[in-house]
């Protein structure tokens, strides 16, 4: 029996790994420093410079002002929740927040009731997976009370999921994890498709739906686009480089206008194993740039493909955007490699004015980049099958933010700029597989961990959630990442030139800098109308509602860090109240809030409560949480039931739009 000592939670291990960052080009050039200084000197002179640094200025463009009716107060009308931290969740007065489905609940027909002390891989393969993240709603016939809900299952935390592991230190826990544990973890990853219906105001999961589906770390997935068949995608199990088993660490995502689900692989490095094989690996530099192998999981002990010494290319087959058609339960999901390989957060998208499809993407690592993908062809609306291979052809770009409030999208195209063979890029397959190194060569701007990037289709503003970056030094600040030791993050608003999302130029400004605005040293900027409950730290996911209003979901708030749990905040983006934030919903202790998703009629907001019951890792007195000792037993509050991630449906009793 090992000595019991605090072992960080799996969630914290992931956070710490992102904390390292792997970008070697994160030190700005002297040119950057001069430019940043100039921009500060220009403060108050050029309009763009002002927009770039000020959080709360009202909109200045006449066309924007016409787009929405705004006054000098927030358009969100609910009574704000009091910020805090306790064992349950809280929603604004006058709303119901009902649990719809939890980890372990049945997805496929005939599944046995959830039995957490005797969980098996076979059961888990038919049940709702662990750590629900992105949520997408696909209405039936445009209805807002009946449709399919698609949900990502991002990762597993063995100490919270299985009995008996929490008291062990890190090494002993890894020794204690069995083949059956790993099989169960693999079945708890991926995604779920469920049919949901609202009856008498309340949402239920339709039992035995023909659409019900589980996708796991073992589901067969097709590889399409420039990396399909590439030599760096070929493995012992798949010498053709065209099919891969499973998807991993699916964080956020998006729905497409043709009804498919884009689900994004994020921290894939943690699944790969055998650090001792790194030095001899033929692509050592590339592996290091992606943080592979991080060994958060011991899957490589049991499965050769996760051991980089035995299967050198398997890691290249993860880190992609996966497209799934939830209406076709037997369809094969597809990894769309044209969109690049990195730690994808989400896939916010819009049909551009010229009909092409544009996907905005954040690479969530300290000092990594913001990307977009523009398809070659136009979307065919009303004919889903016509868009089947739309995402296989187009141009991937990475963002460079200039200090004067302008910016440029730099193309990741083989043969253009530095992306040729002498620099290690033999073809477009190399460019997309090693997108991070390609973006390094192009001079993209290293950002403070880009999470969701979402578009407001009414104003054409694009919102970039930058969650935090405690490793940015004073010498590394720039106009777009203006705080060193950025613990609380900020949100950038980006405007494509001419409202053309395919354009290579844009302007940008900072919407809010996050944290407690009452503490001067934090340097937070919200609209002064924001109350003590209304500010937040660590923006992560976001959603734009049918009225064009922005809602922010957070990851990383806690009693010790910000005096509040994570939640959903309504953030005004327009008019004199721009930058005013209000707390609408907060999660139980230990959880983060993911996947905010509105039904088209805005009468329901689905949210994903992820990893409730974990300990507050910033509190030096906190005891490590585990399966046996969670900080809350939400949502069941039964002594024999562990804390469970769950999807919550927020509605108004009697009906009505959310926040109106
Ligand atoms: Fe899975 Fe970047 O959050
Ligand atoms: Ca998460
Ligand atoms: Ca996230
Ligand atoms: Ca996060």
List the helices and strands and how they pair.
Blueprint: H1 10-20, H2 30-41, H3 47-53, H4 62-67, E1 90-91, E2 96-102, H5 121-124, E3 132-139, E4 146-153, H6 158-161, H7 170-176, H8 179-188, E5 190-199, E6 202-205, E7 213-215, E8 220-224, E9 243-245, E10 250-255, E11 261-265, H9 284-289, H10 299-302, E12 321-324, E13 334-336, E14 348-351, E15 356-362, E16 366-368, E17 370-378, E18 394-401, E19 406-411, H11 428-433, H12 435-442, E20 447-448, E21 450-455, E22 462-466, E23 490-496, E24 505-513, E25 539-544, E26 550-554, E27 567-571, E28 581-586, E29 592-598, E30 605-610, E31 646-651
Parallel strand pairs: 8-13
Antiparallel strand pairs: 1-28, 2-31, 3-4, 4-5, 5-6, 5-7, 8-9, 10-11, 11-12, 12-13, 14-15, 15-17, 16-20, 17-18, 18-19, 19-24, 21-22, 22-23, 23-24, 25-26, 26-27, 27-28, 29-30, 30-31
The chain binds MU-OXO-diiron and calcium ion (CA) (3 copies).
């Amino acid at each position: 029996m090992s000595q019991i000592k605090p072992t960080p939670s799996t969630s914290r291990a992931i956070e710490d790994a992102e904390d390292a960052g792997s970008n070697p080009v994160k030190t700005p050039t002297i040119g950057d420093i001069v430019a940043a200084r100039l921009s500060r000197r220009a403060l108050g002179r050029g309009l763009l410079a002002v927009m770039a640094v000020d959080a709360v200025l009202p909109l200045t463009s006449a066309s924007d002002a016409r787009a929405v009716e705004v006054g000098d107060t927030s358009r969100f009308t609910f009574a704000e929740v009091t910020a805090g931290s306790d064992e349950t969740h809280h929603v604004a007065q006058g709303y119901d927040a009902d649990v719809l489905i939890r980890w372990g609940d049945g997805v496929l027909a005939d599944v046995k009731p959830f039995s957490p002390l005797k969980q098996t891989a076979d059961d888990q393969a038919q049940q709702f997976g662990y750590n629900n993240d992105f949520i997408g709603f696909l209405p039936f016939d445009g209805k807002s009370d009946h449709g399919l809900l698609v949900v990502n299952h991002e990762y597993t935390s063995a100490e919270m999921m299985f009995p008996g592991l929490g008291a062990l230190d890190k090494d002993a826990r890894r020794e204690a994890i069995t083949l059956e544990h790993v099989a169960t973890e693999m079945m708890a990853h991926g995604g779920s498709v469920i049919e949901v219906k609202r009856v008498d105001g309340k949402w239920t999961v339709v039992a035995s739906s023909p659409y019900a589906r589980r996708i796991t770390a073992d589901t067969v997935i097709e590889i399409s686009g420039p990396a399909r068949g590439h030599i760096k995608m070929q493995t012992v199990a798949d010498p053709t480089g065209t099919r891969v088993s499973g998807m991993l660490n699916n964080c956020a995502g998006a729905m497409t206008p043709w009804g498919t689900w884009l689900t994004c692989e994020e921290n894939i490095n943690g699944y790969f194993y055998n650090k001792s094989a790194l030095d001899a690996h033929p692509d050592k530099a590339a592996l290091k740039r992606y943080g592979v192998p991080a060994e958060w999981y011991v899957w490589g002990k049991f499965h050769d493909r996760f051991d980089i010494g035995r299967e050198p290319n398997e890691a290249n087959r993860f880190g992609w955007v996966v497209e799934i058609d939830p209406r076709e339960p037997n369809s094969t999901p597809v990894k769309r490699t044209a969109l690049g390989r990195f730690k994808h957060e989400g896939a916010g998208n819009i049909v551009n004015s010229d009909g092409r499809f544009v996907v905005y993407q954040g690479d969530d690592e300290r000092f990594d980049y913001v990307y977009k993908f523009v398809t070659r062809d136009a979307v065919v609306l009303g004919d889903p099958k016509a868009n089947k291979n739309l995402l296989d052809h187009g141009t991937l770009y990475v963002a460079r933010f200039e200090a004067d409030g302008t910016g440029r999208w730099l193309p990741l195209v083989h043969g253009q700029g530095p992306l040729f063979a002498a620099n290690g890029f033999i073809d477009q397959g190399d460019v997309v597989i090693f997108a991070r190194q390609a973006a390094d060569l192009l001079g993209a701007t290293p950002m403070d961990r880009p999470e969701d990037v979402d578009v407001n289709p009414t104003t054409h503003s694009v919102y970039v959630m930058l969650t935090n970056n405690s490793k940015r030094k004073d010498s590394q600040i720039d106009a777009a990442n203006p705080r060193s030791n950025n613990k609380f993050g900020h949100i950038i608003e980006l405007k494509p030139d001419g409202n053309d999302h395919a354009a290579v130029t844009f302007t940008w400004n900072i919407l809010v800098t996050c944290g407690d605005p009452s503490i001067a040293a934090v340097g937070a900027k919200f609209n002064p109308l924001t109350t003590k409950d209304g500010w937040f730290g660590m923006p992560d996911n976001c959603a734009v509602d049918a009225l064009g209003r922005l809602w922010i979901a957070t990851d990383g708030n806690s009693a010790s860090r910000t005096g509040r749990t994570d939640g959903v905040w309504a953030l005004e983006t327009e008019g004199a109240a721009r930058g005013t934030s209000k707390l609408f919903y907060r999660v139980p202790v230990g959880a983060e809030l993911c996947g905010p998703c509105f039904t088209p009629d805005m009468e329901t907001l689905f949210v994903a409560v992820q990893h409730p019951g974990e300990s507050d890792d910033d509190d030096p007195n906190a005891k490590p949480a585990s399966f046996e000792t969670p900080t809350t037993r939400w949502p069941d509050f039964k002594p024999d039931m562990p804390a469970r991630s769950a999807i919550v449906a927020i509605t108004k009793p009697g009906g009505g739009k959310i926040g109106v």
